What does this fold into?
Amino acid sequence: MKKVLRTAVVGAGVATACFALAQPALANSFSKAVGDGTVSYNDDSDSFCAQAYNTEGLRSVTVKLTPISGSGPSHHWTDKNVNYSGGNSGPTCRSLATAYEDTQYRAEIWSYWGERGTTVSRGSVTFYS
It folds into this structure.
């Protein structure tokens, strides 16, 4: 009986240790204001979006996505607001569905506003796909 009890206790301890060491998925959805628009990542759809504000003047948000650990696609694009010829009122998104789970990405972000007349670096954000 003692041997059975000891085996059960050891087995329970091993199972607890395995659950404690299991790493949760690192990806989280987020949205961030970046001066002249917003950027966002949706973990459920594996998509990264940029949207320039549809307010006065020409506005744009440019994003360069690069995997920095793991494997996945790179993207570089600009979302232009409705005041641009060919611009749009909604976000422009890029898929990261082919990236390995928990690939770390860096998104470098710039924005433009016609009244200011210059493109401004809005820094970068790192996240997991």
